Amino acid sequence: MIKKILIALLALLPIAASAQQTSGKWVTHARFAITSTQNVIDTQNKIYILVNNSLCCFDKTTKQQTVLSNQNSLTGTLITGIYYNYEKKYLVVTYDNSNIDVVYDNGKVVNLPQIQDAVMTQSRTINDVTFGTDKMFVATNFGFLVIDDRNMQIKETRVYSINISSIAEVGKWRVVFSLGTTVYYCHKNAVPEYLSAYKRTDIASMSNGKILPIGDAAMLVKEASRLTKVTIAEEGEEATFTATALVAAVPTNVQKTPTGYIANFFAAKYYYTFDAEGGSPVKKAFSAQELVSCSPDGDGALWGVNAQGVHSSAASTTYYKADAVSIQGVPFWMGYNKNTHKLYLTGTSDNGILASANKNAIYEINKFDGTSWESANPTGTTGSQGWYWPIFDPNDSTDTYYISSRLSGQFKVTDKAVVKTFNSSNTPWTPRKAAIRFDSDGNLWLVHSSLSSSVPNTAPVKVLPHDKVQSGNFGLTDWTIYQVPDVTNTNSFKYSVFDISNKSSVKAFCTADYGCPVIVWRNNPDLSVAEFESKTYNSLTATDGSTCTWSYAYEMKADLDDNILFGFDKGLVMFKATTAFNDDFAVEKVHALDGVKIYAVEVDTLNRKWVGTAEDGIYLLSPDCKTVISHFTSGNSQLATNVVYRLCCNTDNNSIFITTPLGVQQFFSDYNTSAEDFSNVYAYPNPVRPDFTGLVTITGLMDNSQVVIKDAKGQVVKTLTSTGSHVAWDCCDDAGERLPTGNYSVFAAQQGQEMPAQPYTKIMVIK
User: Fold this and answer.
1) pLDDT more than 90, % of the chain
2) What is the pLDDT of residues 664-704, one digit of tens each?
3) If you ran DSSP here, which 8-state letter would residue 740 be given?
4) How far apart are CA 60 and CA 44, in angstroms?
5) Burial class (CB in 10 A: 0-12, 13-18, 19+), 4
């Protein structure tokens, strides 16, 4: 009965449901890192390229390449697969949230949100898409769908609670593959409702097979360990399946060509061609990683994508590359230069979030001017140990940044070239990465937390005066050294967290390795005098009397006042920098984030705090950190994943750049300004599903509105005050208890005004 209800719900969902409403404008920046190439499809007029979950379309006629995303034609964010129907001339785009877009050659896009929007407990991951006569087959983790592609309406929904890896029509048969060796099949004109009524056969090594039909009685199968040809022999109402291994390796993809088929083995740098019957294999090798395709209705020319871009075999020296992030490693660190109005994005070495596998990362940096991305890897770097955060001299208007490496010192880079290396000849040096910052006067601070037995750390904290920084002409004696206690930590390669108060110039630091303390110090304003006062805290006392402890630290951030925010594996605290030296020193605990692992904190021009977490998305807090203005997750917004590495504010337009395991995004927080009335109040997500644990955003509000939420009996369950156009609600009552299943009405009025008789919107909560 439950399955039938789910099937009915799924089938009745509207085919043209509007995209989920979100407050603000999201931009997902395309990424082109050849090592993460997923698919390339040659059609008669266009080439579709999927790299790093970013989709590009190259027009063969105009020679223009366009990034397709939710900023122009698509409705989703993270693309997981692309599939092309050569007969009907449309591309199917699937997303990580099980949304589907159908992109026709004429540019028309039809959204199919039924799987994404279905209320069900099973995983909805889409595994494969194949095509039959007037049909599209969608294999999922719960079963499959059959869509009539003449009108893009669902004609079959099968919820089996079994992971279906692929489904296709092969001649007279419907064939269904699952994660095991069992293959299900039936006559395509006599399809049973339940999988148990299908006929079955076992084929060895067919687990997770993906089907490409090659005629009425055969198919190519990309499966877990090889590429196989499977022939089907009819025996009355039964069928015999015979598998023949073609290549003892797993292909990246298998596609049809004008003369047969092609199988790409991207990582291994070769591909195979086969004839129309799937025979006569010919292996062809590349000198570098490349993925190729050849449209079955084209001119026979191969089109491929490699590190240089898209190209045709007919013009092998001409390449076309999309405007995209081109860092091959992990795009991680960011800095926004107010003087050049550019974002600087770098790869990373190993740090407290990413493993030591990144320690040999190459030096990579991209720049973004608000319109296009530029690869700007500098010349003159030494070593190959990767690097950390870029910083900027607040008084320097040139294209210059400073950056720390893992083992090769610090660099000053101007116009894509290293113009100064900070090393043992000119800097009181320690052969490990340094935490680096400029203070408001333009003095450069370096803090080395680590030492080794062979090279003692005799200069844990040092500063170079601004005039020496600007001249670039300095030596060992130009630095002032401060022997701040407890800074050093033996052989740590965790990145240190360090920042300087904008008002009082108090410094706050933590090595970020296991159990390392928070250290604060203030120095004599005369940098020629090595005087300082410091405090060390192995735990922090909160104003509510509780004790804050941490195992690992991830962020130290100064706001626009005299506050320091400290993010760690158990939450976030804020404290007035100058009070850290008082005997009664206490911090303000951000209770909304108690127990949440904090990876990043950024402060915007309104002194609001943006907080990136390890698994709970992004929080936007009020300047005093006492109010959650918004909570963005992959479930209620276009944020690609709830794992957020770093955040960076574009102070020119107050947008926020975000790095995650899935790439780079940008959110324009003030895209929706406060409303002039309450005519467009809505809430998202809505309905609130049982597995949703984030905050519901109520938006379309006037600034500083009183918001009242009532249950079905008209009783007030929650009262809130909006900041700007929206307010966040945790689906709890004023006592903090999760509310039961039901419809909740939202009323709003400006301060001092009466609440309306009718609600502006309703929210369905399913507990």
Assistant:
1) 66
2) 999 987 555 677 889 888 887 788 888 776 678 788 888 88
3) P
4) 9
5) exposed
The residue type found at 310 is V
pLDDT band at 490, cuts 50/70/90? low
Determine contact, residues 644/613, Cβ cutoff 8 Å.
yes
Q: Closest Cα to residue 112, out of 145, 80, 134, 88?
A: 145
In eight-state DSSP terms, residue 760 is: S
Mind listing the pLDDT tens digit for each residue in 587-602?
Answer: 999 999 999 999 999 9
Q: How far is residue 644's CA from residue 660's CA, in Å, rounded to a whole number?
A: 5
User: What three-state secondary structure class fits 382?
Assistant: coil
Bridge partners of 104, per DSSP, are: 90
Provide the whole-model pTM.
0.77
* Contacts with 676 (C-beta within 8 Å, 6 or more apart), sequence order: 702
How far is the C-alpha of 242 from the C-alpha of 232, rounded, in Å? 7
Please tell me the distance from the alpha carbon of residue 110 to that of residue 93, in angstroms, as a whole number: 10
Alpha-carbon span 45 to 213, nearest angstrom: 24
CA distance 765 to 574: 33
Q: Go through 406-444 and write b for each residue having 16 or more CB atoms within 10 A of its CB, e for each that does not.
A: bebbbbbbeeeebebbbeeebbbbbbbbbbbbbbeebbb
Identity (one letter) of the amino acid at 242? Answer: T
**What span, in angstroms and rounded, lies between the C-alpha atoms of 66 and 51?**
13
- Nearest to 507, CA basis, from 461, 448, 552: 461
SS3 category, 274 = strand
Contact 613, 599 (CB under 8 A): yes
Distance CA 97, CA 25 (A): 19
Q: What is the mean pLDDT of residues 307-329?
A: 87
Site of tokens 């027009």: 59
Closest CA to 249 of 275, 222, 276, 273: 222
- In the sheet where 100-104 sits, what is the strand order? 79-85, 90-95, 100-104, 109-112
CA–chain centroid gap for 179, Å, is: 28
Amino acid identity, position 38: Q
Paired tokens of 712: 């079905």
Supply 482's token pair.
């401060």
Task: Note the pLDDT tens digit of each residue in 612-667.
Answer: 999 999 999 989 999 898 899 988 888 989 999 999 999 887 799 999 988 999 99
The distance between the two most distant Cα atoms of the chain, rounded to a whole number of Å, is 96
Element containing residue 412 per DSSP (H, E): strand 410-414
For residue 687, cis peptide bond before it (omega within 30 degrees of 0)? yes
The Cα–Cα gap between 168 and 212 comes to: 8
> Tokens standing for 289?
């990683």
185/318 Cα distance (integer angstroms): 47
pLDDT at res. 634: 87
> Looking at 111-120, 325-334, 486-495, 575-584, which range is the least confident one?
486-495
Contacts of residue 442, Cβ cutoff 8 Å, sequence gap at least 6: 393, 394, 395, 396, 466, 469, 470
Q: What residues form DSSP beta bridges with 621?
A: 609, 628
Q: How far is the C-alpha of 710 from the C-alpha of 193, rounded, in Å?
A: 44
pLDDT at 636: 87
CA dist., res. 59 & res. 75, Å (int): 21
Cα angle for residues 94, 95, 96 (degrees, 5° grid): 135
Distances (CA, A) of 684 to 22, 301, 519, 639, 697: 7, 48, 42, 14, 5
Torsion of CA 244, 246, 252, 256, to 10 degrees: -90
Burial class of 251 by CB neighbour count within 10 A (0 to 12, 13 to 18, 19+): buried
Fill in the amino acid letter for 103.
Answer: V
Give the full edge-to-edge strand order of the sheet including 410-414: 387-391, 400-405, 410-414, 417-422
Burial class (CB in 10 A: 0-12, 13-18, 19+), 275: middle
Query: Is-contact 159 185, C-beta < 8 A?
Result: no
